[in-house]
Amino acid sequence: MGVWSIKGTVTEPSKRVFNALTTGISIALGLNIATALKDYAMIARWPIMNNRKRNLNEVSLKRDILVASIYLLWIQLDLTLRADSLTAMGKLAFISGRPMVFIAAIVWLVFNIATQVAVAGVSLTYGFDTSTEAYLFFPGTVKVPDMTFFYSQGNSSQPDPEMEQYTAQVLGSRGWQSAQGSPIVEIPRARDVFPRTQNWSSSEYWNIWEDQPNNTMTYVFPEFSAATRNDSSILGVYTDRTISMHYSCNSHKVTSNGNGSDYDNPVVQDVGEVYMEDFSSYATTYITNNTNPCAASGQDRCFVVQAFEASDTDPWYYICNMTLSATKNDPHNVSFISDRMARMAAGAIAQMGFSWDLQQTTYYPNKTQLGAPLHGSATNMGRKIAAYGLSTISGAATFNPTITYSGMEPHTGFKLGISHQYLFVLSVFMIPIVQLAMCFIIAFWANRVYIHDDAYLSMSLLLRPIADDLYSVSKNHENSAFRSAKKRMMVKYDMGQDGRWGFARSGH
After folding, report:
1. Contact assessment for residue 117 and residue 404, using Cβ atoms and an 8 Å cutoff
2. Are the beta carbons of 202 and 179 closer than 8 angstroms?
3. Dihedral sign for Cα atoms in the order 466, 471, 473, 477
4. Which residue of 209, 256, 296, 335 could cross-link 267, Cys pair, CB 3.0 to 4.6 Å?
5. Could you report the average pLDDT of every consecutive run of 10 residues in the chain (508 residues)?
6. How far is the C-alpha of 238 from the C-alpha of 67, rounded, in Å?
7. Mind giving me the DSSP string for 159-214?
């Protein structure tokens, strides 16, 4: 069982092999226990018959003829001798007439049944369920999001640049609200299960992972089984394809016109007067210029985002270089992000898709998360813009149309689960412990008497003196002399004066 637990998710044939093995082991264990209890009973009958004398009048007579030999067996004595039979024990309980014999026989019956129930019950503590922790992978067709454009939802045709910028801005806003950066150490491994849900607000669909010491945020691309991309039985996994947004920000104190209520442009320390097409008081305004300064330095995947944090008492101005990396571990370009999309994602927080000039601005009230004052923290401003920009990529991966490629397609498998672990462990350990304890107890108890041979000839010789006594009285007829002898005769398994063990008789 430990081997199958370590295996994790297994196939249907592997599940069948396990079921066949456990069924065989359960049957073997049940037979082993039944045989052991039978042997215990056959050993225990001798000290039981040595315990006291038994009146033959308590039982009835049974006859049989074998090769002209006539011998008599008494039911109670016979039942005691056949203590290995549960049927015999049941009969003994109800014909003995002695409370202690009745209790002992019933306890033995219940114990035998309980051990078999315990063995059968072990199989109820474990079972295979459809695995939700891992999938099996086989060559097939895999679906991935088409990352050619920022498609508007429900549209698979090439969008206009303005519409694409607007879509990126909406996706970034929606994703940023759903999930900000988790620690990079929690980043999923390739083939980890992607969440199976249709709740598009779920953080797993938008989640990004943050490497704060390196000013970087990372998104992991998912992929899906081709046949179930858009239904409730979606099978999705994370891949090793990742893309990262790096941020580098500087903050500057605003020395004049910092409350955002004047029509004059703000004056920034070490920068001078900053032209802004539009801004607002009690808000943070994000600005991008279409004449991207990054392009002049040959950085095709970089965009400069500026932010004006208006305040009556503590206004600030930020300049951030946002750079989106190329997709890593993507030799077939199934998750390729173009330079154009990279720049659009980097500046998405400020781009609404429409502008009167070469500048685009978007402002957020300071009571909102995106507009909340940061009081000059360049790092936190970079984190906010990077999370927003990378959320446009995660949003596109969630809502964009899909394409297919030949890869390793995920399939559901089975995982061994133990539903009642304590009961399972208790049963597995208690069955051999109880069996071992009974072995020592029976051996110790039976050690004071001679354990007679179970062979038919040996048993016939053991019972012959009793049969001879009754035969001599009744001449093998159930007459008044026979009944009288039964009343008088008492038998006990004991050691004779000659050192030999047999049935001592009295009263005949």
Report:
1. no
2. no
3. positive
4. 256
5. 64 78 75 73 73 51 30 44 54 59 69 72 73 85 92 82 90 72 84 70 71 93 74 79 96 91 85 85 90 74 94 94 95 94 93 77 90 94 93 90 90 78 72 80 79 72 75 71 70 76 70
6. 82
7. PPHHHHHHHHHHHHHHHHHH--PEEGGGPPPTTPEEP----TT-HHHH--EEEGGG
Cα torsion at 80, 84, 86, 90 (round to 10°)?
10
- pLDDT digit string (tens) for 134-177? 888 999 899 999 999 999 877 778 888 889 999 999 988 877 76
What pLDDT does 146 receive?
A: 93
pLDDT, position 88: 57
Of 403, 346, 399, 402, the residue nearest 152 (C-alpha): 399
Q: How far apart are CA 392 and CA 346, in angstroms?
A: 9
Distance CA 384, CA 378 (A): 10
Q: Which two three-digit tokens encode residue 156?
A: 């698979």
Nearest residue to 388 (alpha-carbon basis) of 364, 359, 356, 357: 364
235 closest CA partner among 248, 226, 247: 226
The pLDDT of residue 486: 65
Question: Strand (E) positions, 257-315?
Answer: 267-268, 272-273, 283-289, 302-309
Query: What element of type H or E holds 364?
Result: strand 359-365
Strand-pair category, 209-211 with 182-183: parallel
Structure tokens at 274: 């900053």
What length does the chain have?
A: 508
Specify the residue for token string 């199934």.
Answer: 334
**Using CA atoms, how far apart are residues 136 and 10, in angstroms rounded to an integer?**
7
3-class secondary structure, 60: coil
What pLDDT is attached to residue 378? 96
Q: Output the pLDDT for position 96.
A: 59
Q: Long-range CB contacts (< 8 A, 24+ apart) of 420-425?
A: 420/124, 420/125, 421/125, 423/121, 423/125, 424/122, 424/125, 424/126
